[in-house]
Inverse folding.
């Protein structure tokens, strides 16, 4: 018998979008500014194209203008840098997103470093990550997926302060920044990864588990302390002959087992995924607002 609450990321994300839309229309009325978000997509990866399409739809739904640069797989690094430079200098663009992974012949670091930190709505610029890690510093932008995880905990009223949190995974885009955020929220944080020996002994102590690994159903019921809150970032496609596409998406956490042990758990899809896009819109709004404040009063 499942007893855990299902954390509905989709409906929280929709509520956030309504809030953003309201604030954007106030902004437009008051000072005539509409935020713009530019996306640079190199090559034709299917998952990236889907993400861009969803992002565009989300921008349209709240009133953010979306711009796109689609470059072919064999473009040069300089061509990408030229686009970044144009977007950096374009006052109608408030956020710039470079979709990763880039083709192998490009230097990801050079490219990410070229994005103006004031427009780094992904929050991946080393200065933003550095500020996230330092006490008493505020990053201009917090990475979207980690921010979405914390926002879900907040909106559901799950306390973080003083709790024992375990993050599974240490990637630059999810695991590491989400661990930093939990620590800023006064959790006691452990990070486990592929070289950790006793992962489930560690996760079993957690009041909050955030999993960002990319392995279907890795986190079993026996890994979870009764009453824990589980945020499942993983998106994995597994074969499913019952579905028309022949596959379906699952998380890192075995949802059925977790539902019997945890007090709350995010589904996949419909958990963290929609929150990521909502936080991207939020970061674009924050960027537009700060440009305006700086121009007007700075
Ligand atoms: P990465 O592959 O970059 O990182 C995976 C991490 O998991 C690594 O730190 C790795 O350890 C660790 N890991 C691998 N195997 C194990 C194991 N057996 N036990 C414990 N840790 C392990 O992935 P990302 O962080 O980019 O993404 C993680 C998942 O989240 C993916 O499924 C991705 O699709 C999904 N995702 C979802 C988003 C959303 O919006 N919901 C956004 C971004 C990602 P090590 O460092 O030692 O290699």
């Amino acid at each position: 018998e499942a007893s855990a609450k299902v954390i509905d990321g989709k409906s929280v994300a929709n509520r956030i979008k309504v809030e953003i839309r309201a604030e954007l229309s106030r902004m437009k009325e008051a000072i005539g500014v509409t935020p713009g978000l530019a996306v640079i997509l190199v090559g034709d990866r299917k998952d990236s194209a889907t993400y861009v399409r969803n992002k565009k739809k989300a921008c349209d739904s709240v009133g953010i203008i979306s711009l796109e640069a689609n470059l072919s797989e064999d473009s040069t690094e300089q061509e990408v840098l030229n686009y970044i430079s144009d977007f950096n200098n374009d006052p109608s663009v408030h956020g710039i997103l470079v979709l990763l992974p880039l083709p192998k012949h490009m230097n990801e670091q050079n490219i990410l470093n070229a994005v103006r930190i004031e427009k780094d709505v992904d929050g991946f610029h080393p200065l933003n990550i550095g500020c996230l890690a330092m006490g008493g510093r505020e990053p201009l932008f917090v990475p979207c997926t980690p921010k979405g995880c914390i926002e879900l905990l907040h909106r559901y009223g799950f306390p973080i302060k003083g709790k024992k949190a375990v993050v599974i995974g240490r990637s630059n885009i999810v695991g590491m920044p989400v661990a930093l955020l939990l620590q800023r929220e006064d959790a006691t944080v452990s990070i486990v990864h592929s070289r950790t020996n006793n992962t489930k002994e560690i996760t079993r102590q957690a009041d909050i588990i955030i999993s960002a690994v990319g392995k279907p159903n890795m986190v079993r019921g026996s890994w979870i302390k009764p009453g824990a809150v589980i945020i499942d970032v993983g998106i994995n496609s597994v074969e499913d002959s019952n579905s028309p596409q022949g596959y379906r998406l699952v998380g890192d956490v075995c949802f059925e087992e977790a539902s019997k042990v945890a007090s709350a758990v995010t589904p996949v899809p419909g958990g963290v995924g929609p929150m990521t896009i909502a936080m991207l819109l939020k970061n674009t709004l924050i960027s537009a607002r700060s440009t305006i404040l700086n121009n007007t009063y700075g």
Observations:
- The first strand starts at residue 5 and ends at 6.
